């Protein structure tokens, strides 16, 4: 571009005569501010003389006129133009590319997880690049899996999928099965003894006598119980037994026989099962010596647990460990803790010395719930019903010490070890199995909120005593409680809903959506209102997917797939981008699926408004844009595990667990119908008779 003839070379003599360089540059900047800046302006010798003494543009941002002309001259004449005389030949110099500056950028948000070790959201930084080592406490398998289990394992499944499929971490996920435990031992003995009792049907009078005998210790237990929920449960059981016993007592008093006695007898046997099982165990439990009795029960319920997890679309762990298979490793683990000075042998059992550990440099006991240290009720619950006798408690140096290895009593399974026959303590099981697989430090440890103390605090202490470190777990994640219609859920209180029963009412997707609509670390209330919200969300998304599929079924040529974007499309696309950013920010914020789902709902609402406006204007909406939105939503729902089948767009029509893909089966017929409909519309428009 040639310079304008109106442009005159300025008189720089007064400026060049200024001796102070800083003042000279300021004067030059002020003079240049009165001139128009035209790229390609033909430079004169006076221009070059004014900049000859400058080797670089001034750093002061206020002198931007000088800096701009300096770069302009340098771009046209090359980097040495300001230091060498070029005469009037300057305007014929070689052009060069102007200096490029990268665009300003904001820092990307980082994934933060709520860490129970700090009770805050910490930036998640794995120890080994993108590899994440994760250990999750699995179930103690002695009964049917319930919605409390679902709360924990669905929530961890969502977190695992998001870390793996959204944030692209390489997750190595380990979970255990506790198949050796006080609860399992007691339940196995009770089941065995009750079945033996029932196989030799007692006479009606004998059954009544046994029930009265069982009620004596039961009444003592009831009177000593202070927990209101547990007391209420025991009172319900007492009433049920009394109601069932009354007809049988009347029948015996009337000297009835045959079927008139059999019916009431069977009713009382069923109602008094728990009462009699507990009584039989207290009187004959030590006689159970067959170890297969203790393995049969957990094997059955483990298989049921895996079936339930599969039905809920929970991914299986990469590695599953069973306590019964790791006893040698547990023995070695306990021995090293003793060798390191943090364990002691007492009467054939081995205990962890909490006082010695807490007073050692570099160690701390009670990292997760320090305010609970010394809570004897919680500590005894952690030890188990079979391990809190006065004799066992007297073996400890401190009431806060806990069992690493328990000497087996008659009626308990046992394994040989250096301290005599015994069995693992509950807390040591996870430490030994996780330590064997994941080493001295793992990235994530997960479990239910109620496991924080004493179970997880004891795990941390004994593992750090074994490895002599203070970082066995980097991030501790705990899922929130589950309540049932506002009431506490507990298997021991018989106030629970099994997963199988829940799946009879709602699909796995609906249950997962209910969990996604709540923060994973907060209490979730499983109620009719909660499930209705999940059902409404599912219907809302499904209607959108069906509308987009209907739009995509309309025949169109290849070029017709690409339609001109008007303001409405540009606005929707901008909103689409903003919503995706909002979803990303929500997932970075402790995997906040509740907010993510709300952003997805808002995106669908905007798409619905867009489609409605086009329908009102008798215009076809942009199929490519809507398809992009629908595929994004499908992708996110797959990441969350809410779409379990292979589906390119939306919820599969066939439903989970069906071999028939209904959508692909009927698609050819839908396509023909759609083409026929479009043909009729075209004919109608040509004849201007009907507009659809």
From TrEMBL:
Subcellular location: Cytoplasm
Cofactor: Zn(2+)
Main location, first listed in the record: cytoplasm
One protein family per Pfam: tRNA-synt_1e
Keywords: Aminoacyl-tRNA synthetase, ATP-binding, Cytoplasm, Ligase, Metal-binding, Nucleotide-binding, Protein biosynthesis, Zinc
Coiled-coil stretches noted in the UniProt entry, renumbered to this chain: none
Sequence intervals crossing the membrane: none
A GO CC annotation given for this chain: cytoplasm
Annotated EC: 6.1.1.16
Top-level division of the source organism's lineage: Eukaryota
GO BP annotations, alphabetical order: cysteinyl-tRNA aminoacylation
Subunit record text: Homodimer.
Protein name per Swiss-Prot or TrEMBL: Cysteine--tRNA ligase, cytoplasmic
Originating gene: CARS1
């Amino acid at each position: 571009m040639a310079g304008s003839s109106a442009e005159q070379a300025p008189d720089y003599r007064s400026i060049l005569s200024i001796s102070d360089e800083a003042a000279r540059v300021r004067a030059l900047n002020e003079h240049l501010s009165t001139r128009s800046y035209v790229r390609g302006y033909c430079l004169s010798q006076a221009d070059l003389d004014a900049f000859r003494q400058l080797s670089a543009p001034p750093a002061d941002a206020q002198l931007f006129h000088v800096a701009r002309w300096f770069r302009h001259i340098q771009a046209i004449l090359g980097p040495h133009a300001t230091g060498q005389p070029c005469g009037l030949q300057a305007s014929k110099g070689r052009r060069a590319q102007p200096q490029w500056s990268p665009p300003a950028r904001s820092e990307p948000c980082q994934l933060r997880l709520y860490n129970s070790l700090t009770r805050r959201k910490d930036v998640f930084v794995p120890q080994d690049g993108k590899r994440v080592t994760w250990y999750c406490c699995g179930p103690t398998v002695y009964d049917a899996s319930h919605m409390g289990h679902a709360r924990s394992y669905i929530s961890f499944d969502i977190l695992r999928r998001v870390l793996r499929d959204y944030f692209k971490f390489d997750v190595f996920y380990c979970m255990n099965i506790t198949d050796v435990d006080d609860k399992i031992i007691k339940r196995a003995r009770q089941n065995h003894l009750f079945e033996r009792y029932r196989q030799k049907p007692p006479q009606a009078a004998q059954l009544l006598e046994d029930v009265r005998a069982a009620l004596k210790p039961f009444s003592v237990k009831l009177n000593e119980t202070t927990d209101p929920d547990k007391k209420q449960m025991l009172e319900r059981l007492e009433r049920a037994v009394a109601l069932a016993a009354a007809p049988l007592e009347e029948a015996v008093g009337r000297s009835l026989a045959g079927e008139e006695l059999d019916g009431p007898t069977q009713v009382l046997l069923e109602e008094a099962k728990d009462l009699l099982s507990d009584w039989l165990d207290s009187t004959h439990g030590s006689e159970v010596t067959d170890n297969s009795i203790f393995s049969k029960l957990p094997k059955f319920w483990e298989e049921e647990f895996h079936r339930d997890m599969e039905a809920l679309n929970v991914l299986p762990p990469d590695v599953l460990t069973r306590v019964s298979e790791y006893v040698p490793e547990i023995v070695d683990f306990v021995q090293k803790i003793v060798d390191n000075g943090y364990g002691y042998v007492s009467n054939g059992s081995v205990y962890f010395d909490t006082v010695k550990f807490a007073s050692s440099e570099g160690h701390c006991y009670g990292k997760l719930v320090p305010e609970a240290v010394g809570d004897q009720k919680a500590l005894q619950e952690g030890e188990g019903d079979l391990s809190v006798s006065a004799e066992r408690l007297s073996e400890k140096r401190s009431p806060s010490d806990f069992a690493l290895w328990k000497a087996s009593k008659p009626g308990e399974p046992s394994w040989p070890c250096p301290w005599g026959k015994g069995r693992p303590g509950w807390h040591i099981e996870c430490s030994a199995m996780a330590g064997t697989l994941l080493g001295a430090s793992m990235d994530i440890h997960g479990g239910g909120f109620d496991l924080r103390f004493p179970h997880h605090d004891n795990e941390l202490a004994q593992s750090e005593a074994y490895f002599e470190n203070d970082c066995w777990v980097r991030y501790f994640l705990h899922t929130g409680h589950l309540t049932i219609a506002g009431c506490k859920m507990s298997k021991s209180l018989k106030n629970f809903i099994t997963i199988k029963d829940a799946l009879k009412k709602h699909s796995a997707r609906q249950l997962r959506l209910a969990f996604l609509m709540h923060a994973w670390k907060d209490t979730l209330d499983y109620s009719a209102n909660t499930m209705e919200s999940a059902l409404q969300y599912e219907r809302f998304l499904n209607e959108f997917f069906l509308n987009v599929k209907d739009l995509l079924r309309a025949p169109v040529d290849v070029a017709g797939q690409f339609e001109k974007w008007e303001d409405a499309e540009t606005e929707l696309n901008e909103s689409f981008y903003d919503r995706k950013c909002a979803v990303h920010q929500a997932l970075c914020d402790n995997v906040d699926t509740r907010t993510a789902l709300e952003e997805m709902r808002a995106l669908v609402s905007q798409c619905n408004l867009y489609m409605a406006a086009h329908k009102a204007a008798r215009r076809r909406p942009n199929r490519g844009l809507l398809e992009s939105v629908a595929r994004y939503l499908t992708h996110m729902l797959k990441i969350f595990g809410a779409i379990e089948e292979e589906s390119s767009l939306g919820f599969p029509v066939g439903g989970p667990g069906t071999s028939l893909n209904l959508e692909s089966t009927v698609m050819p017929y839908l396509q023909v119908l759609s083409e026929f409909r479009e043909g009729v519309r075209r004919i109608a428009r040509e004849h201007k008779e009907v507009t659809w």
